[in-house]
Inverse folding.
């Protein structure tokens, strides 16, 4: 199929659903072609460096920070532009069954066979490819059995696969609560994640305001260079999702 497409044959080579799936993964732009430009914000650079380090060293890391600061965007961009990296939105695959099958599917494996066989094939594949990285976003939404799969997969692929686990402050509380209640698996998983939850957003009021303004200004300058930055910051309260809406209005 690849050779046929490479030679310019597109009609009936792949099903429409497959084209849509590929287009989604590659973030193909429709409409007027005005692609959203990535701004190298403090959050983007921090997470990018973390992901690069984890992937190159088969490491684990945990990031728990506020919603709406660009965690998801950065993770998706990294997965889109790097080999053997997959992004998992855990809010969409909460159960153990969904979780394992989705990861296998993203790696291109047979995900419809018996769950045990899917998992064994996934483990074998992870150990056979160069520098695989699995990014888990919204990890706090995983059901307990799915969360325990992190330990299972770690034990089976130790030293062969990198994991980057992200979520909002609720993920931090979920892990802390699990450890306090001595729930099986939480202490072990937290230890594997470096025994600490990292955070980018500063705590002080003035520092936070400056941080959010810096983030929003970078996004505005990259995607709406003609806009009045100060006016946009005031109207959006430096919130990135609101910045996105305002920028799109100007296109």
């Amino acid at each position: 199929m690849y050779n046929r497409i490479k030679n310019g044959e597109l009609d009936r080579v792949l099903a429409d659903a497959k084209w849509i799936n590929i287009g989604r993964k590659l973030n193909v732009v429709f409409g007027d072609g005005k692609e959203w430009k990535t701004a190298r914000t403090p959050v983007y650079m921090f997470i990018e460096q973390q992901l690069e380090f984890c992937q190159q060293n088969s490491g684990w890391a945990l990031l728990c920070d506020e919603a709406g600061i660009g965690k998801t965007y950065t993770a998706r961009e990294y997965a889109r532009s790097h080999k053997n990296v997959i992004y998992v939105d855990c809010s969409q695959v909460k159960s153990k069954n969904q979780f394992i099958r989705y990861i296998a599917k993203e790696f291109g494996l047979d995900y419809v066979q018996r769950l045990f066989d899917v998992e064994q094939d996934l483990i074998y594949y992870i150990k056979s490819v160069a520098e695989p990285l699995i990014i888990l976003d919204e990890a706090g939404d995983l059901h307990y059995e799915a969360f325990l799969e992190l330990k299972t997969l770690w034990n089976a692929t130790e030293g062969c696969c990198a994991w980057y686990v992200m979520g909002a402050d609720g993920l931090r509380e979920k892990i802390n609560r699990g450890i306090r209640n001595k729930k099986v698996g939480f202490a072990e998983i937290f230890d594997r994640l470096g025994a600490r939850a990292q955070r980018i957003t500063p705590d002080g009021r003035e520092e936070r305001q400056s941080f959010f303004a810096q983030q929003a200004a970078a996004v505005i300058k990259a995607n709406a260079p003609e806009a009045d930055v100060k006016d946009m910051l005031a109207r959006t309260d430096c919130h990135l999702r609101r910045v996105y809406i305002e920028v799109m209005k100007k296109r």
Q: What stands out?
A: The two ends are 37 Å apart (CA to CA). The CA atoms of residues 2 and 131 lie 24 Å apart. The longest strand covers residues 162-167. The chain has two domains: 42-192, 205-249.
